[in-house]
Amino acid sequence: MIQNLLNSLLQLNRLTRLIGESVRWLSLLMVIFSCLVVVLRYSFNIPSIALQEAVMYLHASLFMLGAAYTWQQGGHVRVDVFYRNWSPQRQIWVDRLGILLLVLPVCLFMLWVSWDYVANAWAIGEKSPETGGLPFVYLLKSLIVALPLLIILQALAELANTFVPHTDAHEAAEVEKHYG
Predict the structure, then answer these.
(1) Which of 37, 128, 143, 150 could cysteine-pair with 68, CB 3.0–4.6 Å?
(2) Backbone φ, ψ for residue 176 (5° rounding)
(3) How many independent structural domains does the chain possess?
(4) Helix/strand/coil percent split, the chain, to 5
(5) Helices 49-72 and 137-161, interaxial angle, to 10°?
(6) Cα separation of 142 and 125, whole Å?
(7) Per-residue pLDDT averaged across 134-156, rounded?
(8) Residue 10, CA atoms < 13 Å, CB-side half-sphere
(9) % of the chain beyond a pLDDT of 70
(10) How far apart are CA 53 and CA 163, in angstroms?
(11) 150 in the Ramachandran plot: left (φ > 0), alpha (ψ -120 to 50) or beta?
(12) 72 is in which domain, residue-wise?
C-alpha cells in the first residue's frame, strides 16, 4: 500500500514538475514579446494588438499553469508564525485539514462556476474583440479550468505526502519533489 502511494506521489510530482519546467520558459517569451512590442511601436511606428495580446496570454499561462509547480517547490508565500513552532505531527494535520477543507473545496467551486463559461467560449470559438487581435480567447479561458485541475492534482500529491511515513523512500520522494 505504501509503495503504491509512493509511486503515485512520484508520478504526480513528476507531472507537476514537467508542466512547471515547461511553462517557466513562457516568462522569457513574455519579455521578448514585450520588448518587441516597444521596439516595433516606438522605433518603427508599427503597433501590434496581436503581439500585445500574446504577452497577456503568456502572462496568464505562466501563472495559471505554474501555480501547482510553485506550490510543489514551496515557492508560495506562507505566513507561518504559528505553524513553524508546531510539532511535525500537528503540522501534518494542519496540512491535511487545509487541503481537505480549503484547497479542494475552493478548486471544486472554481471548476463548477467556470465550466459553463469556458464551454460557452469554446462553443462559439470566442475571438478577441479587438481588430487584429488573437482568435484564441477560448483557449485563454480554458486556463480558468486548467488552474483548479492542476491545483487539485498537486493537492492530492501533498495530501498523499502527509500519509507516507518518513523513511529513506519518503526522503527520496521529497528530493524528487523539491530538487528534481
Answers:
(1) 150
(2) -60, -40
(3) 1
(4) 80, 0, 20
(5) 10
(6) 12
(7) 96
(8) 13
(9) 91
(10) 44
(11) alpha
(12) 2-179
